[in-house]
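Hey, resending since the last one bounced:
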Amino acid sequence: MSDTSSTNGRRIIVFDTTLRDGEQSPGATLTADEKLVVADALVELGVDVMEAGFPAASPGDFEAVRSIATRVKGCTVAGLARANKNDIERAAMAVKPAESPRIHTFIATSDIHLEYKLKKTRPEVLEIVTNMVGLAKSFTSDVEFSAEDATRSDWDYLVQVFSAAVAAGATTLNVPDTVGYTTPLEYAALIEYLNAHVVGSENVVFSVHCHDDLGLATANTLAAVAAGAGQVEVTMNAIGERAGNTSLEEVVMALDTRGQQFGGCHTGIVKNRLVPTSRLVSQLTGLVVAPNKAIIGANAFAHEAGIHQDGMLKNPDTYEIMKPTDVGWEGTRLVIGKHSGRAGFRNALEQTGIRLDDEQFAVAYQRFTELADRKKTVTAADLIALVEDQLEAEISTFHLVRWSASIGTGDQASASVVVRKGDQEVAGDGVGNGGIDALLEAIDSAIGIPCELEEYHVEAVTPGEDAQGLVRLRVRSGGNLYTGTGLATDVVEASARAYLAALSKVVNGQTTGEIPGPVSSVSRWS
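The C-alpha cells again:
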C-alpha cells in the first residue's frame, strides 16, 4: 500500500504562510482576532515556522504580527519585509516579542523584475542584498532571504545574490517560484546547482516557495525536497495569490505516505489536525475547499462506485492509500439522531474535532434536536455545518427573525422579512426573479446597506432530499469584499442567513445606533 517515511531521514522544516501569503487571496482578509485563532491552530498542527504577516503593509498588519509574536510559543514567528530599511525595522519591532523571531526579507532577481519593477541593475541589487540582510541580522540571528522570481532568474546571478546573502548573515535561502513557472525536473536541477555553487551553502537551509499557476506547486516542492531543499513554504488549503500556494496537507502526506521516494524525509506535523485546521481556515476566510481536494476535500475518502465499495468492504487498502483517521476525518459515516442524548451528541462533536464551551454546546444541542426532528439521519457533515453556522451567527450584527416568500409560474416572486439588530427589529419587502432574489431585496429594503453580490455558492451538506443547504456568498461594499455563510434545510432561508452574515461584517466596527433606513436604489447582482 504505502512506503511510510522513516524518521531516520531528513526532517523537513514546515514554513506556513497561511496568515501572510494565504491571506492575500482575494476576499480572504482576516480580522486580528481571527488571525490569533488561526495562529493557535497552526501551533497545534505543529508547524515549525509561522509567517504571521507583512508588518510594514499597514498598522493593522503590524499589530497582528506583534500580537501573534507575543502569544505563540514553541514555533518560530516570521515577519515579511522588503529589502529596505523601513520594512526591516518594522518587521524587527513586530516579531521582537517572539520566543523565536525571524525576519524574512526579499528582493526580486529576475531581469524582467529588475528592468520593469525595480528599475535597478544587477550590481545595485547585490549591494542592497548585502546591506539589508546585514541590517536584518543586527536585529535577530534568524534571517531568511528570498530572491523573488528566482525560477526566472539567471542561475549564475542567483549564485552571486545568495552568496552575498550568506556572507551578510542569512541562515535560510528561499528560492521562490513566484509566478508558478517552473517544472519539477528544472526546479530540482536549480536546487542542486545552488547547493553546489553558493558560497557557504553548507551552513544554510534552502527553502522552496511555489505557486500553482500551472498546477505543479506540490510536484515542484517535492522535487526540490528530493534535490536537497530543507524547508517547504506552504499554506493550509493551498490558498494564496492567484491560483494559490503549495498545499501544506499534500506535501505533508506525500512525505508521510511515500517517504522512501524522498530518502525518508519527514515533517513534525500532527497529521490528525489537518482536517480540523482546514475547516477552521475555510470557515474564517470564506474560501470553500473543493470536494475533490486531496486529503481534506469532502470526497477525499468517499466511495460511490459499486466496485470500489466492494473492494473497501473486503480490505480498505484496495482503494485507500492512507487512513482517513490519520488526517483527522472520522473515518466512518457518523449517524446520530434525536434520541442520542447530550452525551452522544458531545461525543459526536469531539469525533469531528469540534470544541465548544458550555454555553455554545447548549445552543448547538438545541439546534441539533430541532434538526433531528426534520431529518431522517444527522451525519458528521451536518454537525460540522451546523456548528460553523452557529459560530458565524454569534458574531453577526443582524439576525433573521422571520421571513416569507411567494413564487408562481410567470410571476415575479415576492418576499418579506424581519431582521433584528440588538433590541431593534425592522421589516422589509421585496420582489425579484425567484424566492432568493426577492428575499435578499427584502433584506436590502429593511437595512439599506448598498452592496453587490459578487459570488454565490450553494451545496447540499449531505445526500438526500432532507439535506441541509449550505450557502456561501461574497458581497462588495465600499470597494471591500465580505463573506458570509448560512445554513438551513431551506436554501432560501440559508441564503438570507448568509447575506445577513456578510452585511454584519460590512458594519462591524461602525458606531452602534439605529439601523440605517432604506436607500432609494440598491444594486446587488453584479
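Residues 303-309, 509-526 have pLDDT under 50 and may be disordered.

Sorry for the duplicate.
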